[in-house]
Amino acid sequence: MRVTILGAAGMIGRKLAERIAITGQINGQNVDALTLVDVVTPDVATDFKGTRDAYAADLAEAGVAAQVVADQPDVIVHLAAVVSGEAEADMEKGYRVNLDGTRALLEAIAAHDGYCPRVIYASSLAVFGAPFPAKIPDDFHLTPLTSYGTQKAMGEMLLNDYSRRGILDGVGIRFPTICIRPGKPNKAASSFFSGILREPLNGQEAILPVADDVRHWFASPRAAVGYIEHAATMDTAPLGAQRCMTMPGVTATVGEQIEALRDVAGDEAVALIRRAPDPAVASIVAGWPRDFDTARALKMGFRAEKSFQEIIAIYLEDEMGRTALTGAAT
Amino acid sequence: MRVTILGAAGMIGRKLAERIAITGQINGQNVDALTLVDVVTPDVATDFKGTRDAYAADLAEAGVAAQVVADQPDVIVHLAAVVSGEAEADMEKGYRVNLDGTRALLEAIAAHDGYCPRVIYASSLAVFGAPFPAKIPDDFHLTPLTSYGTQKAMGEMLLNDYSRRGILDGVGIRFPTICIRPGKPNKAASSFFSGILREPLNGQEAILPVADDVRHWFASPRAAVGYIEHAATMDTAPLGAQRCMTMPGVTATVGEQIEALRDVAGDEAVALIRRAPDPAVASIVAGWPRDFDTARALKMGFRAEKSFQEIIAIYLEDEMGRTALTGAAT
């Protein structure tokens, strides 16, 4: 199996490439060739024993999509995107990368007769827009309230139409908010959801800008990689014409996150969280979804963690080299 | 008010232009300039007393959208599209005209600082895909099962995003199946819905390829023009971020259509309908929606007929010069 990852320099792309490199497999199937692409040159997966390649390219630029599919990879993981804040601030760039880039990929695939790769498309909870029911079902309408969400929803529709036509075999994955993200805080409004756990676990102070009763939808980086691995080899026939699904995850309030931290790391860790209410952040987060009914993805075999304790345990294992609780999803 | 109609050579475009030309108004507001555009040169609305222009152009070609918005019309009615069957048969053409053409228009508008026209976008019931509830509500998810429906749904999302950003003031209209279409039968699978009424009213035989219990959603050409007129001048503030609505219409079975024909034109007209079941047509139509709850559009002031008798009466008045029943919607 030949696998190409677009957006391979991002957090999930790196972790996926690393896992394929180490195991030589994706979900139990051997990977013979691994190609990593991003706008900056991704790290070459040097552990990988098969044919490997890594290069910098912008999918939205003329000819790049044709280059990506020239060797007809069996699985294309399309994670390349301009993120929410940037797509809102730079409308032209967001549409160019997120919409035109995706369409260029699909059209480049269509140009190869008899070629029908598995295409795994990274979508987002941003395809949904308030008002929400308490638990968002699989057939909830897509009413994005950002340009990023609009672009992702349009990409989902393209993926469905190109799959229906037999040009490709698409699986669209709406990722939960990934927690605990390794590394440093960033300027995303969602940054604190990881920060209030990651910083205390590393003995550092963290700022909490919202109230304890703010609820959101989470999964670990390991679960995120697991979705993609599952999507790479799953039977797509039961999906029919609707290729995109919200992924399973854990619904939790900030208060529940903090109690899970206390369970794992004690009161001294919790004491490192400093409450500094920020009405601007609170207002953004108030428009975000809180809970999902992901029956469809679960039925299709996608899995995530079952508790926030598990999510924290995975961070300790994967990022801090500590063995913690058992039962973490893989 | 300056009005530009894209797709002005089509049935609805011609009727709208004619009405504006005769009244000099759109929904009671004076129209000073009327520009008609289509891929073939539309008839110049010679009755129109204001500034008039008509030219042939393809919105998807470079520079055309810029030309369309160069004089900053106050209202742009965007009816230009490749229809369902053609968009399915010619994928490249469908995406080029229906998606790229629409996007080119929106981007050309965005290029004018401080310009925010009312854009009326013709969408379609094809944005919905089976399985359906008995009555499709306003918040039903968009799961198109054709490339045409995909392109129209993507156009709706663009209209919402560009409206949210204040670049334009969009209203998306999902037209019912228009009945009775004047003129000759065409190759559309829906052609018989008009044909079984129009041909008998003109003393000619009509073929009915489906069973009498097939149900669908209809409005007259006059109601279609009425939607656009209303959309041109309505207060869009209550629409919020969701600019697109299914238009009110009449749900009717083929059997109910036939009984309405009997009411208006008697048994001799009904006797001209010849049943010739066509499984291919029956199969296509089986995937179409049957009934809608259009509470939102009704609340926003959109109106259609209340019965099939009214729909037939409008055909007699508007196409055959006969006065028939009263109470037809305008």
Structure, described:
The structure is a homodimer of 330-residue chains. With 330 residues, chain A is an alpha/beta fold. Chain A folds into 2 domains: 2-176 and 219-246, NAD(P)-binding Rossmann-like Domain (Rossmann fold), CATH 3.40.50.720; 177-218 and 249-291 and 306-330, UDP-galactose 4-epimerase, domain 1 (Alpha-Beta Complex). Helices cover 39% and strands 18% of the residues of chain A. Chain A has helices spanning 11-23, 64-69, 84-89, 91-110, 147-164, 191-201, 221-233, 254-270, 279-286, 295-299, 308-320; strands at residues 2-6, 25-26, 29-30, 33-38, 51-56, 75-78, 118-124, 169-175, 177-178, 206-208, 215-219, 244-246, 250-253, 273-275. Chain A has a 7-stranded parallel beta sheet, sandwiched between helices. In chain A, a hairpin with a 2-residue loop joins strand 2 and strand 3 (29-30). In chain A, helix 4 (91-110) packs parallel to helix 5 (147-164). The longest helix of chain A is centred in the N-terminal third of the chain and has 20 residues, at 91-110. Chain A is globular, with a radius of gyration of 19 Å. The two termini of chain A are 21 Å apart. Residues 325-330 of chain A have low confidence and may be disordered.
